[in-house]
Amino acid sequence: MRKLWIFWGLVLVLAACGGGTETTVPAKADQIVCTAAYRSSVEVGIEREETLTFTDADDEQSIAFADMTFHAAYRTGAADNERNLRVWVTDVAETAVYHSTLFQLETDSGPQNQFVGGHGFTGLNYSYTPGSNAELQYFCTVD
């Protein structure tokens, strides 16, 4: 009789643990907005802030600042099933790449904003250029 109670107890525990395991898949983003903030020195406040907005279409955009250029390219994945957002920072002449990151995204969902402080799905990133005190901060969010 005791073994039967243990068996049913385990069944109840497993049934209870099985509930609530469903995960919610975030809807595919209507827009991705990347914000870039520039300052000529880390000892001064942000001097200029710009945004790039991407819809669900292949697109590439950039913002030139005094010492560096912020670039972002969104690919839907329609051609190759590889939906992604690539962001990178170059010198103004675009001959040197200082920073590059590829965010690979599900083809039919997300991404979702996960970082506190309003820093979206990329988090807050910093990029610097050699021979200058300039700093570029950027993050991308979904709307």
Provide structural commentary.
By secondary structure, the chain is mostly beta strands. The protein has one helix and eight strands, in the order αββββββββ. The strands form two sheets. It has a four-stranded antiparallel β-sheet with strand order 2-1-8-7, with no helix packed on it. A four-stranded antiparallel β-sheet has the order 3-4-5-6, with no helix packed on it. Strand 5 and strand 6 (97-104) form a beta hairpin. The N and C termini lie far apart (58 Å). Residues 10-15 have low confidence and may be disordered.
Q: What about the largest sheet?
A: 4 strands, antiparallel
Q: Which segments are poorly predicted (pLDDT under 50) over 5 or more consecutive residues?
A: 10-15
The count of β-strands is 8
Strand neighbour order, sheet with most strands: 2-1-8-7
Report the helical percentage: 10-25%
N/C terminus separation: 58 Å
Features:
single chain, 8 strands, four-stranded antiparallel beta sheet, 143 residues, mainly beta
How do the helices and strands line up, and which of them pair or pack?
Layout: H1 2-18, E1 32-39, E2 48-54, E3 59-64, E4 69-75, E5 84-90, E6 97-104, E7 125-128, E8 135-142
Antiparallel strand pairs: 1-2, 1-8, 3-4, 4-5, 5-6, 7-8
Please provide a brief summary of the model:
The protein has 143 residues and is mainly beta.
